[in-house]
Design goal:
The chain is mostly helical. It has helices at 2-20, 27-38, 42-51, 57-80, 90-109, 118-130. This is TetR family transcriptional regulator.
Length: 140
């Protein structure tokens, strides 16, 4: 059953990535569209995170890798264009994105934060933390 839910999650996330048009416009605009597109499917990601130990790791990675690659490519594009910081790897930014989306969805689900804040809070935190203008000196 968990594997079937994983497959639904992948299908829904693929649709979200398609609707976000990750290769169009600036990387910042694409990231904003991605957060908006992921809001309706964030619950699936929460489920995947919470149940991941019950899934076949290799199989799960094989179905999620194309999704991860698309998001990582978006962050790399933003770095190459000078929109996003380069002291954090694109892979790290992808994992931070997933963590914020799932954490936000979980916080909404348990009533800690308002659902209407999902897109604004995640987008603001990501962009203020990864844009070149917010670049901070690297700590030791």
């Amino acid at each position: 059953m968990i594997a079937a839910l994983r497959d639904v999650a992948v299908t829904e996330l693929e649709a979200a990535l398609t609707s976000a048009r990750l290769t169009e416009g600036s990387a910042i605009e694409a990231l904003q569209r991605l957060v908006i597109a992921c809001e309706p499917v964030a619950g699936y990601l929460v489920l995947m995170y919470s149940q991941s130990r019950d899934l076949d790791v290799e199989e799960t990675l094989s179905v999620f890798n194309p999704l991860d690659d698309a998001i990582t490519t978006l962050f790399a594009r933003g770095q190459q264009a000078g929109e996003f910081r380069t002291d954090l790897t694109a892979v790290w930014l992808t994992e931070a994105f997933y963590s914020l989306v799932t954490g936000g969805a979980w916080a909404i689900q348990i009533g800690r934060v308002a659902g209407r804040d999902f897109t604004h809070m995640i987008t603001s935190l990501l962009l203020q933390g990864i844009t070149v203008a917010a670049d901070l000196k690297r700590s030791p």
